[in-house]
């Protein structure tokens, strides 16, 4: 699968224009995009990063990392996903970076999502849905998630997000209305964000392959 990820990451370079500040996601697919971005680093103005992990990789390639508060809206955000449905709604957060990813996606005019073919599903929910919670609200939110979804929240023990919070992964979901579920989970006190990207979904999806498929 890593070959498909590489092909998707490299294809996304076609969306980068001279002088851009590029929004950069997190994960193993994005790592290939960052490595390809290094080849054109002198043509871009810098990057806004969604995680400490991506920041380290960008800086390692000599790419300047800027603060979103200093850049204003971005033209382009490139990120991976854990699942993608036919409407380009996504589950993200397998790497615990969902909150910063969602912020940068929202701040960007165009969201290009890069995936391998295994990430494509008809209905979201086979991949456990990550929810970032303020630590003291973990069991409260877990109970509310059971009541709302009927799924099984599991605490991702040992993981603390870049924002100092915890993750609940909700198993056994079948998400038929992603927009409504995203809104309902966002309303729970203690929820920082949910890894359902439906309100701000992908604009373009690149599925890695030979040749890559652009949806
Ligand atoms: O928090 C992590 C992100 O949402 C990733 O973009 C997602 O988990 C996909 O990661 P990968 O490209 O490693 O499969």
UniProtKB/TrEMBL annotation:
<feature type="binding site">
    <location>
        <begin position="92"/>
        <end position="95"/>
    </location>
    <ligand>
        <name>substrate</name>
    </ligand>
</feature>
<comment type="similarity">
    <text>Belongs to the ribose 5-phosphate isomerase family.</text>
</comment>
<dbReference type="InterPro" id="IPR004788">
    <property type="entry name" value="Ribose5P_isomerase_type_A"/>
</dbReference>
<comment type="subunit">
    <text>Homodimer.</text>
</comment>
<feature type="binding site">
    <location>
        <begin position="26"/>
        <end position="29"/>
    </location>
    <ligand>
        <name>substrate</name>
    </ligand>
</feature>
<comment type="pathway">
    <text>Carbohydrate degradation; pentose phosphate pathway; D-ribose 5-phosphate from D-ribulose 5-phosphate (non-oxidative stage): step 1/1.</text>
</comment>
<dbReference type="InterPro" id="IPR037171">
    <property type="entry name" value="NagB/RpiA_transferase-like"/>
</dbReference>
<feature type="binding site">
    <location>
        <begin position="79"/>
        <end position="82"/>
    </location>
    <ligand>
        <name>substrate</name>
    </ligand>
</feature>
<dbReference type="InterPro" id="IPR020672">
    <property type="entry name" value="Ribose5P_isomerase_typA_subgr"/>
</dbReference>
<dbReference type="Pfam" id="PF06026">
    <property type="entry name" value="Rib_5-P_isom_A"/>
</dbReference>
<feature type="active site" description="Proton acceptor">
    <location>
        <position position="101"/>
    </location>
</feature>
<keyword id="KW-0413">Isomerase</keyword>
<dbReference type="GO" id="GO:0004751">
    <property type="term" value="F:ribose-5-phosphate isomerase activity"/>
</dbReference>
<comment type="function">
    <text>Catalyzes the reversible conversion of ribose-5-phosphate to ribulose 5-phosphate.</text>
</comment>
<feature type="binding site">
    <location>
        <position position="119"/>
    </location>
    <ligand>
        <name>substrate</name>
    </ligand>
</feature>
<protein>
    <recommendedName>
        <fullName>Ribose-5-phosphate isomerase A</fullName>
        <ecNumber>5.3.1.6</ecNumber>
    </recommendedName>
</protein>
